Amino acid sequence: MTKRNIDPSLIPFLKSLLSIILQISLIISVLSMIGVEMTSFIAILGAAGLAVGLALKDTLQNFAAGVMILFFKPYRVGDWIEFEGLSGRVKEIQIFNTILTTIENKRVIIPNGVLQSNSITNFSAEDKRRIEWIFSIAYGDDYDLAKNLLLKWIKEDSRILEDEDPRIVLSELADSSVNIRVWVWVKKANFQPVKFDFNEKVYKEFPQNGLSIPFPQMDVNINK
Q1: Name one GO cellular component term (predicted).
Q2: pTM for the whole thing?
Q3: Which CATH code, of 2.30.30.60, 3.40.50.11270, 2.60.40.420, 3.20.20.80, is assigned to 2-122?
Q4: In this predicted model, what pLDDT tens digit does every residue of 67-110 receive, in sequence order?
Q5: Cα angle vertex 125, ends 120, 127, to 5°?
Q6: Beta-sheet strand order (sheet of 80-83)
């Protein structure tokens, strides 16, 4: 199936569906071979199917949700998604469940109905992602120096997209710090590497250039 350019998301789903159809066909064939009257059997099966359908309401909902997910494609196999604070890469979309692999390599199984009826974040849907940082310097430090250093490092990093202008603003005069907000755009594969590299660069090189990285503090005055 893969060689014919079928969406990889469909393969586990179709395998599960085909397995169920084959099992039902096998049961019907065996019953027919041993002489069971199929007309009566089908009538009984229909009545039983109604009762089972009511009992398996959630299971059928998960099946229907799986079909909707494969049709509308809010996510595909290989996408990185987040749901209710849990994030992971989509490993399989099965007939009833979606399987995620977390960054810790944990296997998480989520019913399709739950994912279909709730909000999810798909981090792989777009080619580009925006990184946002908030870097802090102390009151009295040279803001222009900090801004120019950040611009220099941004221009030197080839992973940051040149067609999207970076933004650097003095976003807040906080209680213990002057906060600088930075936005850049990168290809989605470079999101974490660039983010972590800049955190390390600022931590190491701000102090080397005479810029302090403040921490919350409180002055206590004691009157005698």
Answers
A1: plasma membrane
A2: 0.68
A3: 2.30.30.60
A4: 888 888 899 999 999 999 899 999 999 888 999 999 999 999 99
A5: 145
A6: 107-111, 97-101, 86-93, 80-83, 121-122
